[in-house]
Amino acid sequence: MKAGRQAVAALTRAVLTGAVAAGGARLAYAGLKRYPPGGAKTWSRTNHRGEPVTLLEGPAAAIGAVAATVLSNHFPERSILTPPVLPLAIAGTGAAAFGVYDDLAGSGKRRGLRGHLGALAHGEVTTGAVKLGGIGATGVAAAVAQGGAPLDVIVNSGLVAGGANLLNLFDLRPGRAIKVALGSGALLAAAGSVNGAVGGGESVGPFGEMVGSVAAPLGAAVALLPADLGERAMLGDGGANALGAMLGAAAAATLPRRARIGVLGVIVALTVASEKISFTKVIEAAPPLKRLDMLGRRPPQP
């Protein structure tokens, strides 16, 4: 009975958090479109079709996700399953700030870790290098706020910073980064459930914590998915970095050390692979992935 009540309380809080995040993201998006800081041209970019899209989706997603995370601390039915607010808020805010900086100030001439670190080795400090350093510092701050042994702080820092960078690598086609975020959130929730079962106790604890932790970023992402799929807006670095960092912080807050090290290993492997392999080409070469990638999107140009 106690486990059942905990499950209902955890899922209720998660649904409420996701709904607040979705509503906050939609309100922020509408407000930013009406009063874009610096003017609409500041946020306008050209997508893969050569058509204009706005980057305002990214800040809106971050605002909705972080605001819902902070507000969740005041929701009713608080319990031991309530996710840690401060690490998630730090991860989302810091990653969004440095991502938006790179979106607005970056030239796009240098891309990827190799490009930015190579430029830095020759004395050129790119906006991308500043962003990498800033998101790295954000990861450390979120991990310190989470607490734990020195090894945990190191692993958790990598999860936040690595998650932010990895999700941004998928923001190359409409809706792709959000679909990856949704899939990642589902896998993390499943991992929380399995962890509880393997631990010999009720799985509702780890599962409830994880669902509550990912509810805010996923709620904000889903709310803005139609604008992304419709090719009216894109997450950009600000949005993708923020959502990825918050998912990394969720993993850091809820998974056991061994699982966190495994997730970090996957993030590192995919990040290194991205320097030599095009994710777009891999997706297009695999029919199931291609169908999922095209779900809800406009047909490709002839």
Tell me, rounded to a whole number, the average pLDDT.
Answer: 86
Structural class: mainly alpha
Largest sheet, spatial ordering of strands: 1-2
Sequence stretches where pLDDT stays below 50 over 5 or more residues: 196-204
* DSSP E strands, number: 2
Multimeric status of the protein: single chain
- Count of individual domains: 1
Q: What is the succession of H and E elements?
A: HEEHHHHHHHHHHH
How far apart lie the N and C ends? 59 Å
Work out the helicity level. Answer: over 70%
Main β sheet profile:
2 strands, antiparallel
If helices are DSSP runs of H or I spanning 4 or more residues, what is the number of helices? 12
Assign an overall shape: globular
Please give the radius of gyration in angstroms: 19 Å
Fraction of residues in β-strands = under 5%
What topology does this entry show?
Layout (H helix, E strand, L loop, with lengths): L1 H33 L9 E3 L5 E3 L2 H15 L13 H21 L6 H10 L5 H20 L3 H20 L6 H23 L5 H26 L6 H19 L2 H18 L4 H7 L1 H8 L8
Antiparallel strand pairs: 1-2
Short structural description:
The protein has 302 residues and is mostly helical. It has helices at residues 2-34, 57-71, 85-105, 112-121, 127-146, 150-169, 176-198, 204-229, 236-254, 257-274, 279-285, 287-294; strands at residues 44-46, 52-54. The chain has one domain.
